[in-house]
Amino acid sequence: MRAFVMLANMLEVITLGLIVTITAVSVRVWQIWPSVADASRSPMLSDKLTLLWLLIIMFLIYFLFSVYMRFYALYRFPVKIRPYNRQDQQTLLKSFVSFVKFELVLLLFSIILNNVWQVVIGNSIWLDVYSFVIILVLIIITAIVYLRFAKGRE
Asked: What is the DSSP string of 63-131?
């Protein structure tokens, strides 16, 4: 469990780093970004408005999950909470939320990065095809690991 919590703390920093990095890259390529999507170049290439919405959604995910992590009264636990396991369960759930937040931000990061790559280089990279499936599998694995730890600390 301690490794799970430590990894979650590291992912908090990495998540913020991903947001700062993709925001800086998006600002940097904003001038050459097409104002209107050009379907003849690539069907996955988005326009400036779509890029802006993806960035806003990424910020909202980070902000809302961070706020949610601060209010333990909102938590719903998969096990019965008793005085002796309350702290462990809160720590585990907070770590789980950190993992899911990282994975969702990583998904949006990969979508935006793929679009930036298409604008700058002109061709698509593999992230647009596989990122959704990879992140979905990671979220499922994270949920299974969390439930296993939570049941073990019941």
From this structure: HHHHHHHH-GGG---SS---TTTHHHHHHHHHHHHHHHHHHHHHHHHHHHHHHHHHHHTSS--THHHHH
